[in-house]
Amino acid sequence: MSEMSEIKVGTKLIAVGDYIMETDEIALIQNKEYEVLEVDEGNCCFDISSELFSKHSFDFEDANGTIFKIKEEYEAPKHYDNSNGSLYLFAEQHNLNAWEFDCIKRIVRSRKKGNFIEDINKTIHVLELYKKEYESKM
Predict the structure, then answer these.
(1) 102-117 pLDDT, tens per residue?
(2) Which end of the chain is less enclosed by CB atoms within 10 A, N or C?
């Protein structure tokens, strides 16, 4: 990592491997997420809460993939907007099976994605598959 501006309070870091102290105690666990608590730009270091210490300082250079890597934030597409409630929660509350959930999800998102006809045709295809599977069980 070349720019220290990437490390800010709240930045999520992933431990690249187990980080073991001279005392043979594990301070970081591989693939575990740690949050930056404080940043000292003057000394080019940041603090996290490790497995051993409530505050453990590391140099900015430690976030270049040697000890940590910066967790990439995922930005969901617009058609995944859950501000009015999650489709997953709706499906759970209504005991929908995978077929039913998939069809409802496709219909709800079809206008938002901008591929209305294509999405409706996919939904029809999924419904036809669901119908065949249902009929084969009878």
Answers:
(1) 999 999 888 888 889 9
(2) C
Write down which residue in 12, 43, 70 finishes a domain: 70
User: Concatenated DSSP letters for the chain?
Assistant: ---GGG--TT-EEEESS-EE-TTS-EEE-TT-EEEEEEEEGGGTEEEE--SS-SSEEEEGGGGTTTSEEEPPPP---GGG--TT--HHHHHHHTT--HHHHHHHHHHHHHHHHT-HHHHHHHHHHHHHHHHHHHHHT-
Same domain, 65 and 11: yes
The 10s digit of each residue's pLDDT in 66-91 is 899 988 877 777 767 777 778 888 89
Total tally of structural domains belonging to the chain = 2
Alpha-carbon torsion, ordered 39, 67, 59, 41, to 10 deg: -30
Nearest to 110 by CA among 79, 132, 85, 134: 79
Last residue of a domain, one of 45, 70, 95: 70
44 and 89 both lie in a single domain: no
- Give residue 53's domain range: 4-70
